Amino acid sequence: MTFTVINRRTWKREEVFSHYIKQKTSFSLTTELEVDVLYKRVKQKGYTFYPAFLYLVTSVVNKHVAFRMSFNQEGELGYWSQLEPVYTIFHEKTKLFSGIWTSMNRDFNHFHTSYLQDVMTYQGSKALFPKKHMPENTVSVSMIPWTSFTGFHLMIQQDTNYLLPIVTAGKLIEKNQTLYLPVSLQVHHAVCDGYHASMFMNDCQQLANQAHEWIK
Fold it and tell me: Which UniProt keywords apply (predicted)?
């Protein structure tokens, strides 16, 4: 993936960025996505829900430059051409988890196959990050399938310059015979505003409603 360095002397967001990077301000936004169409399509086609959610989230963040902004290893500010999903898998025996990643592919079937291969390879691992050579350009995604929530916030103290988004989902809930998924987005205010967070949620909802177009 390519990394484009931002010229901060001419960047229209420089004043906002400088203010919030100094303040070390991040925020989270939580909503309930209506996923009835998505869930039924997944089951109809014999797929599993978690990789479908990973695909949906990664597709949306890759639409918006604001979610792909980061510092590279040289400390330069810029944005990636694409992000890859890093996600958690739960180990039933130990009740611990590992974080692994799967390369994003625009074809959902291909992505789903790669996801299953990665999970099969690393399921039961004792390492936190068992898959080597994790890329820099990642969106972190996790799911807490045991409980629902109306708000979720991570406290990141050590690396206040972490700019990439973090997405957390909860347990599917049914209301009036319709399925909903609580989803929390955490971002750094230096690169994302309420507008961007709103676009993320709106685009996730739209893509979930259009599941028949990408789940073949």
Answer: Acyltransferase, Antibiotic resistance, Transferase
